[in-house]
Amino acid sequence: MSEGTPYMMRGNVTRVWLASIPVSNLEEAVDFYTQVLGLKLQLESKENHWAEVGPDEPSSKIALYLPGKEDPRQPGGPSGVVLETDSIFEFHRKLVDEEVVFKLKPERRPWGGLLAVFLDRDGNEIEVVEDPEHYSRSPAPQARPNRIVREIDRGCRVSTDSSQ
């Protein structure tokens, strides 16, 4: 938004910036995500144990990081990351050729798309979908009522539903 935009109209989410995945070896993880998955290395900060991979802007990225011992997120298990592909069967074939383990081979799901689940070298689960009709299959969601933020005594802010 431009500098002339009223402050009440700022502060909106503009995109999902990145999702993070804990890894045990940053260099090996970068190799997997760039060489096997074909993502582009966008940022690498070895001193901060951090790298970001993904397509060029404005798409979101995957942050690979080395977690500390006290970090509740450790390598292995569901990552929450879902990739999209234009051909899930070709994607599956390419990764099987690279000896990537699939927990779920490509299959049609009840919602209409194709889904597969594979593991990176640390056992992090990553989902991949092929679903070109995803947003056209269902009607757009109904608009939700706007929430209005109003200022009251002593600078406190109260949020109320505009439909009231």
Q: Would you kindly provide a written description of the structure presented here, covering whatever features stand out?
A:
The protein contains two helices and ten strands. It has 164 residues and is mainly β. The chain has one domain (7-136): 2,3-Dihydroxybiphenyl 1,2-Dioxygenase, domain 1. The protein is globular and about 50 Å long. The model has no long low-confidence stretch (mean pLDDT 87).
Keywords:
mainly beta; 2,3-Dihydroxybiphenyl 1,2-Dioxygenase, domain 1; 4-stranded mixed beta sheet; globular
What's a quick, concise take on this entry?
With 164 residues, this protein is mainly beta. The chain has two helices and ten strands.
Our measurement of the CA-to-CA distance between the termini, rounded to an integer number of angstroms, reads 29 Å
SSE pattern, N- to C-terminal: EHEEEEHEEEEE
Strand content: 35-45%
Count of folded domains: 1
User: Main beta sheet: strand number and arrangement?
Assistant: 4 strands, mixed
CATH superfamily: 2,3-Dihydroxybiphenyl 1,2-Dioxygenase, domain 1
> CATH class, anyone?
Alpha Beta
What is the correct CATH architecture? Roll
| Count of extended strands | 10
Task: Report helical residue fraction.
Answer: 10-25%
Number of helices: 2
CATH domain topology: 2,3-Dihydroxybiphenyl 1,2-Dioxygenase, domain 1
Overall geometry: globular
